[in-house]
Specification:
The protein has about 45 residues and is of the alpha+beta class. The chain has one helix at about 30-40, and strands spanning about 10, 15-20.
C-alpha cells in the first residue's frame, strides 16, 4: 500500500493501525468500526 491511492487498515488482537490518518478525513467508517469493536468488547 502506498497510503495514497490504496489506504490500508490492519488489526491483530487489540492493535489497530492504518496507513493514513482517518481523523483528517470526513469519512467516519474507520471511527465507526473502532467504536463498534470497543462497544462489542472485541478490543480490551
Amino acid at each position: 500500500a502506498d497510503g495514497k491511492r490504496h489506504p490500508v487498515a490492519v488489526r491483530q488482537g487489540a492493535l489497530f493501525a492504518t496507513s493514513f490518518h482517518p481523523e483528517l478525513t470526513t469519512d467516519l467508517r474507520v471511527h465507526r468500526y473502532f467504536f463498534d469493536q470497543v462497544c462489542a468488547g472485541a478490543i480490551k
